[in-house]
Every structure is written in C-alpha cells, then in structure tokens.
Amino acid sequence: MHGRRVLSPVLLLGAGTGEATCGILYLAGYLRRGGIEAFVRLHDGDETEDEVARSLEALVARVRPRLVGISLKWFHHVHRALLLARTLREIDPHIRIVVGGNTASYWWRELHAFDCIDHIVLGDGERPLLALCQGDPSPPNCVTRAPDGTPRRLPLEYVQGATNSEDVYYSHFDDIFLSHQDRHAFSGWVAPGKGCGENCLYCGGARGNQKAAFGRAKPFLRSEESVRRDHQEISHRTWQLRYDFAGSSAAFLQGTWAGVDLSRHSCMYFLWGVARMELIDALAQTFEHVHMVLDIGCFSEQQRHEQMRRGLLKPCASDQQLLEIIDGCRRHKNLDIEVSGIAGLPFASAATLEEEVRLVERVIRLDCLVGYQRLEAQPGALATEHPARFDMVSEARTFTEFLEYFEQREPGEVSVPMLRFRDAALERAVQRTSEHVDALASKHEEKKQRIALNGRTRLKNTAPSTLRFELGDWLGAHRVPAKVAREQVTVVRSVNGTGLACAPSLSPRRFADPTLDQGEDGRILLTTLATFEHPTTVASAVTQLGAKLKLDPYSAREVIEHLVNGRFLQPA
C-alpha cells in the first residue's frame, strides 16, 4: 500500500436496535473482496446504555477492530449512533470511527461537530470505505478533519449507477458474522436497485435529497449478474427474500433468479406505485408463499389524486385499479395482500376521512391486511421543512430538535416526531379516524391469525427448520464463557420465521441469556413439539405432557397455545 496504514480488521454496526440495514452486508463483502477483514453485527438487542457498553466491549475484544463503521441510514437512530460512537471512543480511543448512510449524509455538518466521529461517508459507501481502510489520504465522498479540526469535505466522485455497480453484491456470508444467531437474524433483503425518482412530500429520501446526498439524479437497476450473485449467496441461508424497489420488472427478477431454486422460500415485496400483474404472477409462481404490500399513499382517493396532481406524491393506484389488482391476485392461493397508506397527509377534510374509512372497510372485507400510520416528521421531507405550506406543525425539524426527541425516549420506545394539523378540530378528527382504522386493522389481523382450539383439535408440528449448535457457536465466542460453550442449543423456526432457541441442559444459574429458553422451560417446549411430530389432538397431547413432564392440564394447554400462536403448531 506504498507505506499507507491499512485499517483492518473492520467491524460494521447498525445504529438501531433490531436488524441493521442490509447495506452493511454489501459493504462487508466488498471490503473482504478488497483484502480487508470485515465483520458485521447485524442484530442489536441492547436497550440500556449499560447493555450497549457491555456488548461493545465484548465485540471489540473479539474483533480488535482498527475501524468501526456505523450505518446511520434512518433518522430515528441518530441518538443511538452517537451513543455507539461515544462508547467505542471510551473503550478504545485508537479505533477510527466512521458513520455513513442517508441520515449521516444529510446531517454531516452537525455530526462532524462530535469528536467521537472521525469520518463521515457521503452517499454510496463501498469505494470510500475501502479507501479509508487502505489508508488513502483523500478518500472520495468523505468528510474528514483538517489539521485545524475544521471539516474537509471531499467531492462526490463515487456515485453508483447501472454501469459502475457490478462489483457490489453479497459475498463471504460464512466469514463476516460472529455468531450463527446473528446470521440467522438476516431477513433476506435484496436491493434490486437504488435511488428514487419521486418527490413525495413526506419522504426524506425523495429525489431532491437523493441528488444532494448521493449525487444520484435518478434511480437505477443493478446488473442482473450482481443481483443473481446476491441470490446465489443467500438463498440456502435464509427462508425468505424481501424486496422494496419500484423499478423491478418480472423479466428482470426472473433473470436474477435463474439457476436458484426458490420454490420453498417465502417472499415479502414492498411495492411502490401501481402493481403490474405480470410481476405479481412471477412472484407467486416462483415462491412458496408471497406477502405483497401495495402502497397507495393514503386511503382517500380524493386526497391521493390531489397530491399527485400537485407533484407531491408518487404515482399510486386509483381505488378501481387497487380493487382490480386484488381481484387478479385471488387466483394465487399462495399470495396474500397488505394495503398500506399514511394517515394525516395534507388536504385532509371530513370528506376525505370518510373516504379513508370506507376504503379500509372494503379492503378488510376482501380479507386484505391494512398497514396504516400517522404522518411522521422526516428530516429533509418537504412537509417537515415547510409545514406551514400545508397548515401543519412539525414536532421536530432541526438536527437538535430530532436529537433531543430521541434522547428523551425511554429504552424500547419506538415513537417518532409527528406532523400535525394546526386546526385543532381537524387534528382531533384525523386522530379519531386514525385510532378507529387502527382498531379495525388490528381486529382483522387478529381474526386472520386466530386458531380456535379445543380438545378435539388436531395439530401437527409444522416447523420447517430444526438445527442444533453448540452454545459458543450460536451466541458467539465473545458472549459465552468457555465452561458452557459446548452446551447444546436446539434452534427451531416456524413457518412465519418466529424462532425458538432452547438449551434444556443449561441451567440459568450457570449462564443466562434472555434469547434462550433454558433448563426446564427449554425441555418443555421441545417435548411439546415432539409430541406433535404426527397429527395429535390437543386432549391427547395434554395427557402425554402430564405423563412425560408432570404438567397440569392448564399449563400444558398454555404451552400448546404459545406454540400455536408462534405458528410452530398448525391444524393438521
């Protein structure tokens, strides 16, 4: 490297709890192919600051990273990104700390003021991050510090498009994860393309901000070969695939699936805009089960058309088009539909609120799920930046206001700042309608999922995956003491992805982890699943569990109901 100081190993983290964005997986593979030893932590379950500190200390001790990259894609993770950066700085002041992603690119000036951050990557991150790791003194797309501490922003020289993104694809999944648990947390996201060509008034990632932060004037599809490599890398490692790009056609996706058997996989597709039946048909013919989310902007057709007329909303289906799509989907027994819209968009009125309720009720009568939420404030979105144009107020607009909001949230809380109407009477009406629709949607979803149980109900263990690991491999050597590392863990996945990790031989007194069902609890769950290995009535299983485990009938039925709710047991 001509005397440059190479920064390797590298650890990549997401800034939020739960599953991180798939971007860190693309970055890790790219770095590995560039000669950098990269690792990811894909799932983060820490809530308190003490938990954050303990897990980061263990990760740093395991990886010994010389650079840590923090993915700050979503704005509601800004407080946590800074918490991670500060904690890492305290653990090891010599680690170089880099943040990147949509939100980091949007707020780079504000983030640069924090001395726990060394570099900020603007826009696409693969080549800039590799350059940083290779010791390049002028990495493209980066904000670094001049000798006097002032920000030094380098040009956006690296902008991915259809002709220069062939080397961005998933790879090295056997190397980049530090535990089997973390790898199993991957939900199967694949990015067919990048960018957005629309300027929806509520979105911080709309066309204008894409151009400013990423230098990308319009969206693009990645090459078929690159996306095919994604499928080849992950198809045998995940039970489902997830997509959310508007520009994918049936022909394009079929080309990326070539040579990959997905007939036993599930698929979740978040479709922006008007769905094309040939795409829906291709999904249903390729996957065992498909969950299609149809985004129609909002449930009031009048409101939807007014926003599209003003150029404030992407093209969305009319009510008639939506109903025709739903009707066309009914010929596929393996496909279910969720219709998604935002409540409280501009130009609401008593008439549009009535329209919303009528369409929601009709969609529910057609047995479709409903996704519905109030309009949130997103940094850079037109409605957030200029709420007065729409006779609205925003609960946060500036970096400081957003940061203070998230700093004050209780651990585990998931609320975000909202946009509300200045007219108090209208705001109350919108909120009442929102709560009413939420109740309708929740009641319908609960009814769809409910399975009535009695003693004669015949159930079968339908879990499609049961795997066994040593505890040290499952949780990771950095989390497990050597004295219990060889204990056995049985990992069971249900048909909808719910997971159980049972360690029946491991007493919580020796080692405890909240993600495990340990000791007697683990033994009860595994024994109950084994009882239903063949179709069995609930009454018979209750009797068997009483004999095998000395469970009273009430407790036995409670365990059975728990496994039914998790879709481990299904009607035979």
TrEMBL record:
Residue stretches making up the B12-binding domain: 2-143
Does Nuclease show up as a keyword for this record?
Answer: no
Transmembrane parts of this sequence: none
Q: Name one GO molecular function term.
A: metal ion binding
Pfam families in the cross-refs: B12-binding
* Cofactor(s) essential for the protein: [4Fe-4S] cluster
The cross-references to InterPro entries, in alphabetical order and at most eight, read: BchE-like (IPR051198), Cobalamin-bd (IPR006158), Cobalamin-bd_sf (IPR036724), Elp3/MiaA/NifB-like_rSAM (IPR006638), rSAM (IPR007197)
Which keywords appear in this protein's UniProt record, sorted alphabetically? Answer: Iron, Iron-sulfur, Metal-binding, S-adenosyl-L-methionine
Q: Is Glycoprotein tagged as a keyword? A: no
Domain of life, source organism: Bacteria
Q: What is this protein called?
A: Cobalamin-binding protein
Species of origin reads Cystobacter ferrugineus
